[in-house]
Structure formats: C-alpha cells, structure tokens
User: Fold these one by one.
Assistant:
Number 1:
Amino acid sequence: MKLTLRVWRQQNAEAPGAMATYEVDGISQDMSFLEMLDTLNEELILGGDEPVAFDHDCREGICGACSLVINGDAHGPERTTTCQLHMRSFEDGDTIDIEPWRASAFPLVKDLVVDRSSFDRIIQAGGYISAPTGTAPDAHATPVPKPDADSAFEHAECIGCGACVAACPNGSAMLFTSAKVNHLNVLPQGAPERETRVLDMVATMDDEGFGGCTLTGECATACPKGIPLPSITAMNKEWLRANRKVRR
C-alpha cells in the first residue's frame, strides 16, 4: 500500500503547529497503525529528519496510551484502540490525517503526545476503597450480588485512554469519571467512600477544565471498551443522592 499521511507536528505547547505531509510506500495490510508509524519514523530518521512523537506502551489494546485522532475519529474508523487498528481498514492511495487528542484538559506535549495526567488526578480524588490492615479476609467473606459484580466489571473495563474526551464536542470527561465512580460504588467494598467518592471525583473533573456533558453520545460511540452511556446517568443519580445527604 502507498499512503499519504498528513501528521500534526508541533515542537511543544507554546510553539505553533501545522500538518506535515509524508508519503509512505510498501505498507502491509497486516501492519498495525503504530507499525505503520514506526515505518514512517524509520524513513524520517534515515533521511536525517526528526521522527514523529506519539504515545504507545503495551500495543495490546490494554493501556490506552496509543491516543490518536485518525481522519477525525478517536482511535480511527474501527471501535478499538489505535494499536489494534490494522491497515486493512484503509485503501491503497488513501490520505490519512493524524492528530493528537484535542482538549484543553489534555495539554499538548509534542506532535501527537498529550498530557493526560488530569485523569490521574480524578482517580486520586476518589478511586480507592478502605482496606483494613491485618489478616487478609477470605475472598468470599463479602458476598457481591451477580448483577453488581457484572456492573463493576463492565465499568472496570475503562482503560482511561481519553477517547471519550477527544470525541465529545464539549471535551467532557463524564464517561471516564462515571466508569471510575460506578466501578467502586456498586460494590460493598466501596460503600464507606460512596458519597465522598462521587463528590470529590466530579469536583476534580470540573477543576481540571473538562467541558460539560450534554449527552450527545459521541463518548460512548468512540469508547474502545464499550462503556455504556447510561453510566453517566447512574453517576448523576449518585451525585444527587450524595449532595442531598451532605447538605442535611
């Protein structure tokens, strides 16, 4: 395959950025998207040019580090992570636009790399449970109803990639935050921090500068792990309940 790549290049957050055009040839349909970018970077290095900076880690669809907007879609045309997107999803001769996540809460570091530590701060605000010290309890000591366990597992699938923020026209992080809140709030182990968790995590989300949610649904459509849109509704109910309890 021969492709034309239009890649966002920007030295740092203060420097001006622009799309740079590159031609790559000999791309196999079996390559992953990141392997294709590796090929581009090898050619740039051999030509004495600076390679394109992009994030990656596991390349197995688990960590979510491979955050790219491809032809206007977070992670590209398939509902998967960028590292699991293969070049068979494109046609020979295609022009592909590659950009970083676009959100004020994800400041750009360089080229296609953004700083997503705002997600870490949301987790730090309430993504934990009380763990008594001493002898470890038996695994079956705290029964969890099957529907609650299923819901917790469903929300725990969120890998924090940020596709929901990149896809949202408002740059909202409600789907991510709701996944992290609901994951623990439905479990008995998460009960002690149930109210403070949702209040603190939502407050931190707002402080980080994410936009407001208008339930357009783009976040759930872009999520590579299929976190459902009703997760946001469930978190809103949790927030209202906790807010009323705190005001009493």
Number 2:
Amino acid sequence: MNRPLIGISTYLEASTRWGVWDLPTTLLPAGYARLVRESGGLAVLLPPDDPDLAASVVARLDAVVIAGGPDVDPVRYGADRDPRTGPPAPERDGWETALIRAALGSGTPLLAICRGMQLLNVALGGTLTQHLDGHSGPQGVAGRFGSHTVAPVPGTRYASVVPEETTVPTYHHQCVERLAPGLVASAHAADGTVEAIELPGAQWVLGVQWHPEMGDDPRLMQAVVVASTCRPAPSRAPAGDHGDR
C-alpha cells in the first residue's frame, strides 16, 4: 500500500551552523517527519517558494502540514506591531498563506501547528493577540517547551480524534483574538485560550496551538493520514478568504 505524501512547510534561516559550515538554510525540527513516518505517511519538506506555485505543489500532495515558527506579521491582520512581537518572516507568511489557500481550494487535508494555526486564522480573516504569558516554556528559559492541559469542545472534529482532556507540549506567546468567519474553536486551555480551531464540513481542516511533534500522542497525525486517503471532491475556499493584506 502506498503511503500518502504529507507536505510540511519549513523554516528559512539566514545563517545556520553545522560541522564546518555556516550557510543560509531551510530547516525543520526532525519531530515533524518522525511523526508523519510513525503515523503511516511519507514526509516531504516545502521550503518557502513563489506563492504562485503553491497550488501546483499542493496538487501533488495528499495532505499539508503548516509548521510552527516565527510570529505572523501583524500587518496581515491590520494591527500595529506590539514591541514583543518577533521580526517579520515575509517569505514564510506569503508562501504558507498560499499553501493554506491552495489546500482549502482543493479539498486537501490540512493540519496547522502553532504559528500555522495562527496563520490559518489570519488567512481567513481573523486576528491575533500578540502576547500572552504562561504558554511557553519555563519562565526565563529559552528553547524549552512547557506543557498545559487542553480540553476538547464536544461535537467537534478535534473531539472525535482526542475526546479527553490531555496535557500537550507548548511554546507560544500569541493566540487567536478574533476567530475568522467559518472557523470554530474546538479546544481550550484552562485559562480560556483557544487551543484548536477547525473548519466544519467534509474537508479535514484543523489547527492546534501546541506542538504534537514534540509529544508522544500520534492521534492527530494519524487522523491526517487517514483523511488523506479518503479526500472529498475539491471545493472552493470558504467565505472569509479576503486575499493578501
């Protein structure tokens, strides 16, 4: 049986050191590919490229994963930049927005992780809270994941995959402010933060604020792999797709 091809977006870094080298790189934490492989898929990396090519790329894939990463540029949702918002990543913002829209337009299953969930909300017309505390790693310790519980919303797609409250790996300081038209919240943290969003209907579209690739629960990625083998007919992107800002 052929394994479905799961495309994962990547970072774009101006300088990365390994061995004797210090070069510009496209990279991705290994946990993403591991999770895809262990869930029955084949991972292919999608480095930032010309957004006009996104539809032709997605047409060759069975599912799309938008990975975590830097803050979404607030200009994309009409907000002034908070001093605590990180530097913009225009290549990723443009490319991943195009991947999201291509997946929505073609009926391709889509899993959006952390930054990816935020960008999904922005791409469909929502906004973000640019800073909140308590959702990254231990205070004062950079580069270490934290954890907290998330509770599913009964009746949602997420709840059908993970029906119980779980503890998840987390590292973010931004979140959904205004939910985009057409999307629904499907999980919350104890403090009320929206932790998962989804698009109701036949197409499999889900965003989670945490990092499943850093945990040991494969159910979300397994659900993506299953969805990729029984895709509905292509459909137009839902209402709320307002084009680039």
Number 3:
Amino acid sequence: MVVIRAPRVYRPQADTWLLARALREVPSLRGGRVLDVCAGSGALTVAAAAAGAGSLTAVDLSRSALMSTWMNCRLRGIAVELLHGDFASALRLPRFDVVVANPPYVPAEQVAGRGAALAWDAGPDGRSVLDRLCAMLPDLLTERGVGLIVHSAVSDPQRSLSQLRELGANAQVVATGTVPFGPVMRARAGWLAANGFIRPGQREEELVVIRVDRTSSPVAADPA
C-alpha cells in the first residue's frame, strides 16, 4: 500500500502490516463501525475500508497525522470521521465493532515524546499509552466488539493480557513476527540493553498482536 505522509508522521512499517493482516481476519469488520486509534498515516483506516468496514473513525494527537489520514482516504474515495486529541475522546461516540491500535510503545528516558517522537516514545517502561489503552479498550467496544493492539515484546505483552483479562475481556495473542530493529530502536539499543529491555547485542524485536473480545467465547490464538 502506498500512503502519503505529512512531515513527522510515522511511516507504516512491519507493525502496521502485521496488524493489517490480523484485521482482515475479524469477521465483524465487514459492515462494522471501526475506530483507528493513533491513526498516523491512516494506513490501517484504509486497510479497514478495503476489507469492507461500514464506517470509519480515526483519532490522533497529531494534526499532521490526521491530515495524512484524510489525504489517503480522500484519494481512495473513503469517508472517514477525524478526531483530534487523545483516544479517550472516542468514548463520547457510540461503541465500535472493531478498534485497531498501533500506539506508541518504545521505552524512552523521557516520560512523553515530542514532535515526531509522539508516534513511538512511551515513557520509561514503554507503557505510558498502552496501560491507558488497555484500561479503556473494553469500553470502546460493542458487546461483540473486537479490539486489536500491536506492540513490541520489549513493552511486556503479558502485562497487556493481564490488564485486559482483569477487566473481564478475552485477550489472546493472535499474531507475532520478528523483525530487525528500526531506526528508533537501533539508536537507543545501548540504553535499552543497559535497562534490561533487550539482550546486549540484540538487534531484532518480536512484534505481538493482541486480540480483545468483550465476549467470553475463545478465539484461535497463539500461546501467551
């Protein structure tokens, strides 16, 4: 998929495409209400539209990201509702059949990212956005709604699973992939190793897609 990006907007990478493949496996996507959290370039919004979504909403803190999402949808004749701000703003809308999220998850020395780093920096443990998203996600979903979250294994997928299950949701790992470090992870590999997030010399990371169902019925999943 070719996407247009405004300056400082996150470029779709392996995590985006891993999540897009998992998204296509969700039956409720066709004809459903879909929310793209931390939309960035809008690549996942476009993927949801291509898979038959009924309506689309994209939310992001970055106006440049929302402009990119709008442009990529506009070029394809896709109607999308844009929300500028934190994903908590979506709570005021009717619930969604599918929520897809590629949030910031890279551990960083600073508490919050700035500028382009808003797309990846997630505090000292990589959880500054993930913890809030896991706490809020079930409230964004319809009774039979499905959520999909992608993040790196360095940001503790087990913690995401535990938080979601404690809220009564059925949470399972449904896709994984090992990829070489991107430029951000390479640049801070020394700091990540010194703080125990990776092994010394490690230059690959595992990506994980977590599926969240509000219903208790199990879904096919990888062990986690």
